[in-house]
Amino acid sequence: MVKVESLPTGGSRFSTSEGSIEVTSPSRHLVINRFRGLAQAALAAPALAELSKSIYASSIGLCVMNDADELTDYESGFRQQWTEWIRVNRRHIKAFHLLHSSSVIRVGVKLANVIVGDVIKSYPDRAAFDAAVEEFRSRPPR
Q: How many CB atoms lie within 10 A of CB 16?
């Protein structure tokens, strides 16, 4: 069962006993997701519903920044749901970036990019990812 919590700084946390996703939106065009533990298929639907709301709030396109540095693994159903969401919403997404250090996630990104048209940009380095977040925070995408 997925537990839903409002975060004190805004946004939502979706969690199970094995993993969580925090979804925050510091501006209308920027969403930051933080993944921890195991990304289960059950976590995908509520997080993607939250992301979908952000798409409709942004008239200029959405930058989705995904911090998966603390993600230990993911279920294939989780990857499939996210890949399908990106494919369906591709025209509304200006950027989809992912920080990770896992070779398993790297393979998943390669598979997903084949389906969604090479939209997912990977970062193995925290500093580069954080710099991209700050750049998107300070200026809307073009």
A: 16
Reference 102, options 77, 73, 67; nearest CA is 73
DSSP 98: E
Output the CATH code of domain 3-138: 3.30.750.24
Residue 16: what residue type? T
Q: Indicate left, alpha or beta for 64 from its phi (over 0: left) and psi (-120 to 50: alpha).
A: beta
49-105: per-residue pLDDT in tens? 999 988 777 767 899 999 999 999 999 999 999 999 999 999 999 999 999 988 888
Question: Which segments within the chain are labelled E, that is strand?
Answer: 3-6, 12-15, 19-27, 30-39, 62-74, 93-99, 120-123
pTM of the model: 0.92
Q: What is the pLDDT of residues 81-95, one digit of tens each?
A: 999 999 999 999 999
Rounded Cα–Cα distance for residues 100 and 77 (Å) = 19
DSSP 74-91: E-HHHHHHHHHHHHHHGG
Largest CA distance in the chain: 39
